[in-house]
Specification:
Elements (H helix, E strand, L loop, with lengths): L8 H6 L10 H14 L2 H11 L13 H5 L28 H4 L6 H13 L5 H18 L8 H5 L3 E4 L2 E4 H14 L4 H16 L4 H4 L11 H20 L4 H4 L7 H31 L4
Antiparallel strand pairs: 1-2
The chain binds 2-acetamido-2-deoxy-beta-D-glucopyranose (5 copies) and zinc ion.
């Protein structure tokens, strides 16, 4: 499933439903801000140094770059890196299998391995490191969107739905409409506020008791099995939530009501997990990366 944007980027900006990209821009930026709230100060310096950014949006402001890059001729090869096409049978059975589902051109999981290893390799150039870091910030986000871990109907892009009276598709409401409704907007400032709400839940609220278990299985020497845990985790929600009501319901009901209400706790927690895991993954990289 590739997220096939039906809007060219310029039109998306002009459109009322801004942000046609994967986890729309808001989701990725939120994940960037959450990660900024949890990385060590050494990691913060490491990332700011690579990116050449000194402000307090250093991860959030690069989190959507990969979605523009894939539409350039130089970056076209990276399109398959935004997803893994799980050949499972939702909503009956969900699973992701790396050897079955990661295509010949690569997938989100092989890309995590490639770009993590580039950052750990002293022969990687400065320019390559910048792209590698920006891709990792983005891809950890994509891996946590359940429909980026699903093959069915191009990850739901071909499932037409209604949302707030608007015709769209199932992939798009998970990327964009539902998180934007929850955050109350799509600007960087909305992402920052949404991130601080989810950060508080991790630090002191409803996610506190479980958040350390979100880091289970993380091993810098094995990026494939580490990120497969995240992909399997997100993919399980395709069965339990995303497609659970069945296609007949999904394609005949406006999904901004009950469906939104049922989905909200799921995407909120997935966005929180993505940010928290990204912070830890960057901490591991920064602690082992060659000094520049
Ligand atoms: C932070 O700096 C980057 C790079 O200079 C810039 O693109 C971005 O707009 C800045 N963000 C904020 C919120 O100032
Ligand atoms: C690894 O990253 C480089 C630089 O973006 C890219 O050219 C190459 O195709 C990638 N390889 C794999 C196996 O993803
Ligand atoms: C924590 O995780 C356990 C096991 O996955 C789950 O049963 C429990 O509901 C979670 N607790 C909260 C507060 O989400
Ligand atoms: C809705 O989904 C069902 C499959 O569950 C399919 O038979 C039907 O053609 C779909 N309707 C529309 C309008 O897409
Ligand atoms: C969704 O939840 C909100 C807030 O709890 C509630 O006001 C609303 O009635 C719910 N909508 C539906 C369709 O259940
Ligand atoms: Zn993407």
């Amino acid at each position: 499933m590739s997220f096939r944007s039906i809007f060219p980027a310029a039109l998306a900006v002009a459109s009322q439903f801004h942000g046609a990209n994967a986890w729309g821009d808001l989701g990725h930026e939120t994940i960037g801000y959450i990660a900024e709230n949890f990385v060590s100060s050494a990691t913060e310096s490491y990332c700011k140094d690579i990116l050449g950014i000194t402000n307090s949006s250093y991860l959030a402001s690069v989190a959507t770059w990969a979605d523009s890059y894939k539409y350039t001729s130089a970056g076209e090869f990276s399109k398959p890196f935004h997803f893994i096409d799980a050949q499972d049978s939702p909503p009956k059975s969900c699973s992701v299998d790396y050897s079955r589902d990661c295509g010949d051109e690569g997938c989100s999981i092989s890309a995590m391995k490639n770009y993590t290893n580039q950052l750990l390799d002293s022969s990687t150039t400065k320019a390559e490191s910048i792209d590698a870091l920006k891709l990792i910030v983005h891809l950890v986000g994509d891996i946590h969107q359940p429909l980026h871990d699903e093959n069915l109907e191009i990850g739901g892009n071909d499932i037409d739905v209604k949302y707030n009276g608007e015709s769209t598709n199932l992939h798009h409401i998970w990327d964009t409409n539902m998180p934007e409704q929850d955050a109350g907007g799509y600007w960087l400032s909305d992402a920052e506020n949404y991130a601080s709400l989810l950060t508080d839940r991790i630090k002191t609220g409803q996610y506190k008791s479980n958040s350390s278990s979100w880091l289970d299985g993380m091993d810098l020497t094995d990026p494939v099995s580490s990120s497969m845990i995240w992909a399997s985790d997100a993919n399980s929600y395709v069965c339990s939530t995303v497609l659970a009501p069945g296609l007949d319901y999904i394609n005949s009901t406006d999904l901004s009501g009950d469906y939104y209400n049922t989905s909200q706790p799921v995407f909120e927690e997935l966005i929180a997990r993505a940010g928290f895991r990204l912070a830890k993954w960057l901490d591991l990289i920064a602690a082992s990366a060659p000094s520049s």
